[in-house]
Amino acid sequence: ARIRHYKWDVKNEFKSPDCFKKLVITINGRSPGPTILAQQGDTIIVELKNSLITENLAIHWHGIRQIGSPWFDGTEGVTQCPIQPGETFKYQFVVDRPGTYLYHAHYGMQRDAGLYGSIRVALPDGELEPFAYDYDRSVILNDWYHKSTNELSTGLSSIPFQWVGEPQSLLIQGRGKFDCSSLTSPSSTDPKVCNSSNPECSPYVLTVIPGKTYRLRVSSLTSLSALSFQIEGHNMTVVEADGHYVEPFVVKNLFIYSGETYSVLIKTDQNPTRNYWMQTNIVSRSSNTSAGLAILNYYPNHPKRSPPSSPSEGPKWDDVDPRLAQSLSIKARKGMGRAPPQTSDRVIVLLNTQNEVNGFRRWSVNNVSFQHPKTPYLISLKHKLTGQFDEKPPPDGYDFANYNIYVKQNNSNATTSNGIYRLKFNTTVDIILQNANTMNPNNSETHPWHLHGHDFWVLGYGSGKFDIDNDPKKYNLVDPIEKNTVPVHPYGWTALRFVANNPGTWAFHCHIESHFYMGMGIVLEEGIERVGKLPSSILGCGASKGLRVP
Ligand code: C2O
Ligand code: CU
């Protein structure tokens, strides 16, 4: 195993990823940032300089479990104090599993500003993947807003509430195309503000050699949107999800939710005299945002030549069935999955609802809307700093018998809290995520939930209200896939199982940036007494002010 050392400088820069100029947060001048390439067992060291001048910073290594290094999970308010302007912070962790992972800002809604990238962990020398391919490539999918992160987040926490709305464009590997002619205010039609011929917003080009097999690692870090991804004329065979091998299945379009990663195999066996569209479309929400487009360039055609066809319509946005069907078809690859424990020690049912709390629009889990404490949990628990968060844990369930998930509810007893779930070390925990109607009539959304510090087995999905007596009998305990991010479909439920064996404090939240900001998340603690000495670099905020050694 090797040590991979990176030096990153994070700063604000003007960029035009979709032709519209805005302030972007870059790493070493780039957004998406540099890809971390490593082998299983390597140690990654990232020396991060915060050159943002006025903004704090924290970076989360999404999908990396941080076994033995819970303090470097990068979750502001949970595992560390924010990195202040001018500071340099050193993250150090081991990548213990092969696969496709991500990194992104985890402070406020900073991820929206373009601070993200991918992590690719290869097998050790001499070990082979259970499938063959000639080339390995990756693309990150995203959605993009023209308003600044501060404007978006301030709107969400204002009275009256100002929703972020649909994104202005969809990006593929950091590039999209906003139609500058649709701008109306004279200042914004200035070509210095929006310029369709700016090379920064020419589509991303993936050049391929005809007759080969490509492993394409597709991941999503959208702020809001659920996406469908497709490559014109090419089927995709899904082989990996969130770092775990999938029993292969073929799709024409891949549904992908924020925080998920997949590897698909594609054969470049189509007419080699032309190029093809790679495209993303928004599903699950009614949106006017135009498709995200990139070019699959068959060598030696000109990489900039547009495909002769027009991009496709994409699937119907409100058709839940094919999305549920894809979720159900993801199973562990035969002979390669780890079997889950057959029973669990604790079952937590989390009802996801939209509420109004003290006049603010919030998202809640069992009527509790999450709020960050001033002192990160890892620090207050490890250093026994009392009174730093609500001692009362949030509830393990909701009023199953009487709650109608299909209608708009007032949920007038909803509160905000920073209480957390304390898990007994090494126990097996089931979490059932239950979706419901929002505050709009006849509306339920898709929420991709992401768990830090663990992979979980996906035991099942269902529509309607989870039935605690009968639905567990239908769990897949034979070949469930392990993942770290999973969708909860509209008016549906998703059941997960994991073992609480990673000492630390871990966020579990909806990966939609505005939903987590509005309280849609929880924090779990396990084995705090086994956590080693905290590095001084994560200390210094809230009640840990005096603990930091300079
Ligand atoms: Cu990728 Cu807590 O997030
Ligand atoms: Cu959500």
TrEMBL record:
Record bears the keyword Repeat: yes
Protein name: L-ascorbate oxidase
Gene Ontology terms for molecular function: copper ion binding; L-ascorbate oxidase activity
CDD domains registered for this protein in UniProt: CuRO_3_AAO
UniProt cofactor(s): Cu cation
Tagged with keyword Ion transport: no
Domain Plastocyanin-like: 13-122, 139-300, 405-527
Region span, Disordered: 298-320
Catalytically driven reaction(s): 4 L-ascorbate + O2 = 4 monodehydro-L-ascorbate radical + 2 H2O
Enzyme class: oxidoreductase
Enzyme Commission no: 1.10.3.3
Family: Belongs to the multicopper oxidase family.
Main location: secreted
CC per GO annotation: extracellular region
Keyword terms: Copper, Disulfide bond, Glycoprotein, Metal-binding, Oxidoreductase, Repeat, Secreted, Signal
Organism name: Cannabis sativa (Hemp)
Compartments in which it is found: Secreted
Oligomer and partners: Dimer.
